[in-house]
Each structure stands twice: as structure tokens, then as C-alpha cells.
Design a protein that fits this description.
Largest sheet of chain B: none
CATH topology of the largest domain in chain A: Rossmann fold
Structural class of chain A: mainly alpha
Strand order of the largest sheet of chain A: 3-2-1-4-5-6
Number of domains of chain B: 2
Order of helices and strands of chain A: HHHHHHHHHHHHHEHHEHEHEHEEH
Oligomer: heterodimer
Shape of chain B: flat
Number of helices of chain A: 19
Order of helices and strands of chain B: HHHHHHH
Structural class of chain B: mainly alpha
Distance between the termini of chain B: 67 Å
Helix content of chain B: over 70%
Chain lengths: 476, 130
């Protein structure tokens, strides 16, 4: 009887977690979904505490309270641009916990538990350690503490491979090792190997590849939790781990698809611009033969700002395409103000959000939501592309790769085949970027050389401010 | 057997170590595997239908869910712990608690930023009057 009640309770809690995920359809329902998940987690903790006699409460309670308080403060204070770094830190915290739990369990029951638990513990330890280190490196990169650009060692793949082999060998040794000191040493070495693996995986991604890395680490932390669940024989832990692993997998695949790159290409160390150096040169060569700025053609003496103002005034339908450059300039509120001014003049304004426009999946949606853009104005490229030929003006702010027609026109570049927001189809194009440097992919943006494209170089915040000022001024 | 199996994961500290292996039957492992596969597949199907605009809150929430690892950390304290084990366990507990509270609070904060046109116009009205 006892067993079936336990089973029922466990499966009810698992059902609650799945219900929480199901509620993520609209933002309103997702608020309830988040609360459902929090309640389910609270229940899981209560059930576990009720079933086992948790000792050392004088240690457990203050530690839990301190961790919770810190988590709360961090969550309330973090700025939306820094969400990816914050999520990476939280991910790392989960990985660290999985690592420590596996380590303690492995040292405690060396040799006496069933082999599958021992193996799960070893996987939990390696995966947890690697996730922790990789997440911390990722968080450092996202918070600009570490160098953003990818670091690729000579024979990077070889190093990753040999670290994994070393981890497997150490795991095998630890299963056979019965001596406590020996076991301690072997597990210490395994921890070191997992840390090195984490560094190797994380240092070689950067910039626009970060969403893939973050999603991948999300999945890894879920898997680590699931393996820990096998070690402590807890169904709830296994189920939650599986949910998180599934979510991380879905998001990883979505990000890879949005960039038209395989997970292997992102993680294994193929730098996009080394993979296709020649086409990139072609693109640059193309740039040299065409006039520097298309806007100066045809005897048009107006400055780019004047042209931009005129284009905004004339346009009746406008699509705004924000990129991560907008977030770096902190210009999201200016972008939204521009959108509001234009729509208050009776123009139709919508936003096109590319899946990899931010630093984690869906990041750009959150940045625009913070700036109070009604979410029904935000559209995916597949929704907006059919409408672009009938759009008077496309305004690109801090984006390059995700609007670069090279993705559809040039074969063999790193972004060839990547789904883009096809702003080239719009009647007029206004680009507000910092400079004419190529995006993360290293491919020069073909739009920069297209005649008729209005180019406003400089800090996006300042450019937008000038544009807004000019638009608000009564017409002379 | 069911009695056996229930005690296994839940109050295993009550059993002498020699019983532990015996009690951890094939049945438990298969059940754990089924739980993993079943939940994973169901979650995968549900998550695939989530719109991209909710991907960041989704990841933030699943992050908090992955902190369910706190159960493992709590279970550690169901048997007496030596000095370094208690320290490592405490770090695991603190990290997991940080992850849980931070994850859910951050998700909630983000989701409340999403507003449709009516919601956002209300907010603007409040701002201008206040």
C-alpha cells in the first residue's frame, strides 16, 4: 500500500510539472505555468522531507535560506540585457549541485551499490562538473568579464576527444578501486577532467553562437540531474531532469536551425569564417568594386539623417528589425519610442525578431517586452517575410547577419542558407548600425553597398534620438 | 516486492548496506528508465509547440526546475555526514536554492513584462498620471 501511494504522489507531482510546461503557450498562461512549476517543486521538496528524516536542520535551513535570498536578489536586480549571463550562472549552480551530490554518494558507497548507480554517479559527476565550469565561462563571456571572441586551440577537437577518453578511463578505474585514498585521487582526477572538458567546450563559442551553447548547457544540466536521480533512486529527480533535458534539446535544435548550422559545427570548433574564407573574400571584393555609399548617388545631396527622416515621413507601413547591436547600445527604448511615434501618425508598425537576434533563445522578445512593445506586434521572420514586398520602409537597428541577403544570394558563405529577415524586399531600407563592419559571421552585409539604402552609422541610441527629434519637430 | 521497492529509494538509510543492493531491483531501474523516457518524450512534444517569444522564460523556468537536484542534496542529510561531506552538501544545497528561487522569480519578472496592446496602454496611462 505504502508503495502505491508513494507512486501516486510522485506521478501527480510529475504531472504538475508537465502541466506547467503545457501552460507555456501565451504569456498570461505562462505566468500561471511558472507558478504551477514552483508549486510542484515545493511539493517535491515537502514529499522528500516527509519521507526521509533529514538531519542537521541547524545547517540545512540557514544554508537554504541564504541561497534563496541570494537567488531572489539576483533575479530582481538583473538587467534584461544580462539575462543570458544570469541564466548561465543559474545553470552552473545546478551543475555544481549535481557534481557535489554525485561526488559524496560515490565516495560513500564505493563498490557496494549496484553497478548502474555507480555508473550514473560517475556520469552525473562528469556532466555536472563540466556544466558548472562551462556555464561559468559562458556567463563570464556574456557579462564581458572574459573575452567574447571564440578561442580555438590547435587541435581543439583532439583535446576534447582525449579529455572524454580520459574521463572514461578514470571512471573505469574508479569502479575497480576499493581503497578510499585511491578512490579519492581517481575521482579528483575525474573532476579535473570534467572541468577541462567544460572549458574546452565553452571557450570556443562566442558571439552569435552563444544561444546554442546556453541551450546545450541547459540540456546538460537536466541530464546531470536525471543521472543524480538514479544515484539517489528518486523518481521526481529523474522526471524533472528529463523535462529539462528535453527543453534544452528542443531549444538547441531550434537555434541550430535558425542559423542553418549543425550542433556539431557549432560545438566541435568549426569557425564559420575559416570554413568559408574564400566566399568571404569574394563578398569583400564585391564591396571594393561598388561605390562606398549608395546614398550619395544620383546627385542626392541630403544627409543620411535627412533622408531617414523623409523616408519615415513618407512610409505608411514600417517593419523594424532589431539585432543584438541595439541591446549593446542600450537603444531598445529609443527604438520603441520611434515605433510609437510612427504608429501615432497612423502608420502601420511591426517588429521582426530573428530567433538568434539575442544571446539566448527568445532574448530579443524579452528585451522588446521590457520596452513595452505589445507582443502581438512582434513577428517571426517566416511571418514577416511575405509582407515585406508590400512594406514601404524596413528599419534595421544593430543587426547585420540576420538581414544580410548574402545568406540567400551567395553560395558557400558561413551564413548561406540561413533563414533571414528579407529586408531587401522592402521598398526602402534604413540601416542604423554602429559601423559597416561585418556581423559575427564575418560576411560583409550586401545591403551596405546596395544603392538607395539609407545608412546611419554611429551609436544607435544617438542616431535614433536625432531621428526622433527630427520627426517630432513640425515640418518646415 | 512493492514494499521492498518503496523503501528502497525513500528510506534507504534505514536498511543496512548489504540489503541495499538486493532491494534495488531490476524493477526500480526499469521504472526509473520509463519515467525518464516517458517524461522526456512528453515534455519534448509539449515544448516543441511553445512559441519562440516564450523561449527565454521557458529556459529560465526549466532552469529552476533542474534545481530539483535540491532533493538529492536534502537526501544527503538523511544520514550523518562527516565534516567535508557536510560542507560540500551545504554548498550543493545553497547552489540549488539559489537556482530555484532565482529561476522562478526571474521567470515571473520576465513574463510580467509581456503585455498585449491593451495591457501596455494601461501601463502608459498609469505612468502619465502618476
Amino acid at each position: 500500500m505504502y508503495a502505491s501511494i508513494d507512486l501516486l504522489v510522485d506521478f501527480s507531482v510529475i504531472a504538475l510539472f508537465l502541466l506547467a510546461v503545457r501552460q507555456f503557450r501565451t504569456p498570461e498562461a505562462a505566468v500561471r505555468g511558472n507558478l504551477t512549476a514552483a508549486a510542484a517543486l515545493g511539493l517535491a521538496v515537502l514529499v522528500t522531507v516527509a519521507r526521509s528524516r533529514i538531519g542537521g536542520l541547524q545547517l540545512v535551513l540557514p544554508v537554504v535560506l541564504a541561497g534563496s535570498a541570494l537567488g531572489w536578489v539576483a533575479a530582481v536586480r538583473v538587467n534584461m540585457v544580462q539575462i543570458p549571463a544570469m541564466v548561465a550562472v543559474q545553470n552552473g549552480a545546478g551543475g555544481l549541485a549535481a557534481f557535489l551530490i554525485s561526488l559524496i554518494e560515490l565516495l560513500q558507497r564505493s563498490g557496494e551499490g549496484p553497478a548502474i548507480q555507480e555508473i550514473s554517479g560517475l556520469i552525473g559527476l562528469t556532466l555536472g562538473g563540466a556544466t558548472f565550469v562551462a556555464s561559468m565561462v559562458a556567463a563570464g563571456k556574456l557579462a564581458d568579464v572574459l573575452k567574447q571572441a571564440p578561442t580555438v586551440l590547435a587541435g581543439h577537437l583532439w583535446w576534447v576527444g582525449s579529455t572524454i577518453v580520459a574521463a572514461c578511463v578514470l571512471s573505469a578505474i574508479s569502479v575497480a578501486e576499493t581503497d578510499r585514498i585511491g578512490l579519492f585521487t581517481v575521482l579528483g582526477l575525474l573532476a579535473l577532467a570534467s572541468g577541462i572538458l567544460g572549458v574546452l567546450v565553452s571557450i570556443r563559442t562566442g558571439g552569435a553562437d552563444m544561444p546554442v551553447l546556453i541551450s546545450f548547457l541547459n540540456a546538460a544540466s537536466g541530464l546531470a540531474a536525471a543521472f543524480c536521480g538514479v544515484v539517489v533512486a528518486n523518481r521526481l529527480l529523474v522526471a524533472c531532469g528529463a523535462t529539462v533535458a528535453a527543453s534544452g534539446t528542443v531549444l538547441t535544435l531550434a537555434m541550430c536551425q535558425a542559423m542553418n548550422r549543425s550542433l556539431w559545427a557549432v560545438l566541435a570548433g568549426f569557425r564559420p569564417d575559416t570554413a568559408a574564407g574564400r566566399p568571404q573574400k569574394d563578398a569583400a571584393g564585391f564591396a571594393e568594386t561598388s561605390p562606398r555609399s549608395g546614398t550619395e548617388q544620383g546627385g542626392d545631396t541630403a544627409t543620411p539623417l535627412e533622408q531617414a527622416v523623409e523616408a519615415c515621413r513618407q512610409a505608411r507601413s514600417i517593419v523594424i528589425v532589431p539585432g543584438y547591436g541595439m541591446a549593446m547600445a542600450g537603444a531598445q527604448f529609443e527604438v520603441v519610442r520611434l515605433g510609437r511615434i510612427l504608429s501615432s501618425q497612423g502608420k502601420q508598425v511591426s517588429y521582426a525578431v530573428h530567433p538568434v537576434a539575442g544571446r539566448m533563445p527568445g532574448h530579443m522578445y524579452v528585451l522588446l517586452a521590457e520596452a513595452e512593445v505589445p507582443y502581438e506586434l512582434l513577428h517571426e521572420p517566416s511571418e514577416i517575410n511575405p509582407l515585406l514586398p508590400d512594406t514601404d520602409l524596413a528599419v534595421v537597428v544593430g543587426a547585420s547577419d540576420v538581414v544580410n541577403p548574402a545568406a540567400t544570394q551567395l553560395p558557400g558563405t558561413p551564413i548561406s542558407g540561413m533563414p533571414i529577415v528579407n529586408v531587401a524586399a522592402a521598398r526602402r531600407i534604413l540601416i542604423i548600425n554602429l559601423n559597416d563592419a561585418p556581423g559575427y559571421s564575418g560576411v560583409r552585409n550586401l545591403l551596405y553597398d546596395q544603392p538607395g539604402v539609407i545608412l546611419l552609422w554611429g551609436d544607435a541610441k544617438e542616431s535614433l534620438q536625432k531621428l526622433i527629434d527630427a520627426l517630432e519637430r513640425p515640418r518646415t | 516486492m512493492p514494499e521492498h521497492f518503496a523503501r528502497c529509494g525513500v528510506i534507504r538509510q534505514e536498511l543496512p548496506p548489504s540489503d541495499l543492493g538486493a532491494c534495488f531491483l531490476m524493477f526500480d531501474l526499469i521504472l526509473l528508465l520509463l519515467v525518464f523516457l516517458g517524461t522526456g518524450l512528453l515534455a519534448y512534444r509539449l515544448i516543441r509547440r511553445i512559441p519562440p517569444r516564450l523561449h527565454t522564460p521557458l529556459m529560465s523556468m526549466t532552469n529552476a526546475i533542474s534545481a530539483v537536484i535540491i532533493l538529492g542534496a536534502l537526501l544527503l542529510f538523511s544520514s550523518p555526514r562527516s565534516g567535508w561531506e557536510a560542507v560540500a552538501g551545504a554548498v550543493a544545497l545553497a547552489a540549488a536554492a539559489f537556482n530555484i528561487v532565482g529561476g522562478f522569480a526571474l521567470t515571473d519578472r520576465m513574463l510580467h513584462m509581456f503585455k498585449d496592446s491593451q495591457g501596455s496602454s494601461r501601463v502608459r496611462l498609469n505612468r502619465s498620471t502618476g
